[in-house]
Amino acid sequence: MSDIHDGIEDHTPHKPRKGIYVLPNLFTLAALFGGFYAIVMAMNDRFDMAAIGIFCAMVLDSLDGRVARMTNTQSAFGEQMDSLADMVSFGAAPALISYEWALKGIGRWGWVAAFVYCACAALRLARFNVNTAVVDRRFFQGLPSPAAAALVVGFIWLVNDMGYVGSDVVWFMFALCLYAGLTMVTNLPFYSFKDLQMKRSVPFAVIVLLVLVIAAINIEPHFMLMIVFAVYGFSGYFLYAWRRAKGLQTSVISTSTDEPDEQGLHK
């Protein structure tokens, strides 16, 4: 009987082995390293390098999702990994950097402000994950965590490069952390730029303008980046006021949903 069974081919279907896509997760891990590097640099009083680490993490974070879509390697694991990396790079890292740079000089008020920022980043990322299917893709619901991190560390980079220390602007840093953190958990609409068509032809003048912008950033990167993210960091309030004045829907929730049950999103 054993000979008979040995001669019979096994036609039992085998489930494909689940694995982890390497390429997009390499970008995510590199972004995570940028946040970790920023924390280490802040511990060594290299706040300029800490800011550069956060900005590098921002670039890498913007690439991992695009790489996954281009190579058709999206996965639930990658989404979770991206959120955890964002929490480190754009939640914990900016809070710790701001605390080390200035906030620890005002005692408990300092760590409270840093914690509020960190907690709001966690809440914003959790809400983003559960509301992905119902939010208008043209807008973010609240200030995105990378932009909030850029606002905080960009200010530190700029002021530090001007020769000032954290104690000179400690209360402004306190207010900025609270502003960035609380703005992340508002329902304000922030333009996402996801509806821009990169394959669409544009006038030649647009290319020239982009060259000038890149050149300006290269001349004074800390100053120009701070200006860009400061404008974006306040844009949600202006966009909300403009849409309300025009009688347009101010909520970015495009359809109703049962979970999560958040009252007042369409007001």
Mean pLDDT: 83
Q: What is the strand content?
A: under 5%
Which value, in Å, is the CA radius of gyration?
22 Å
CATH topology type:
Four Helix Bundle (Hemerythrin (Met), subunit A)
Quickly count the domains.
Answer: 1
CATH superfamily: CDP-alcohol phosphotransferase transmembrane (TM) domain
Shape descriptor: globular
- Helix proportion of residues, in percent? 55-70%
Strand order of the largest sheet: 1-2
Structure summary, number of beta strands:
2
- CATH level 1 name: Mainly Alpha
User: If helices are DSSP runs of H or I spanning 4 or more residues, what is the number of helices?
Assistant: 9
In CATH terms, what is the architecture?
Up-down Bundle
Encode the helix/strand succession as letters: HHHHHEHHEHH
Structural class: mainly alpha
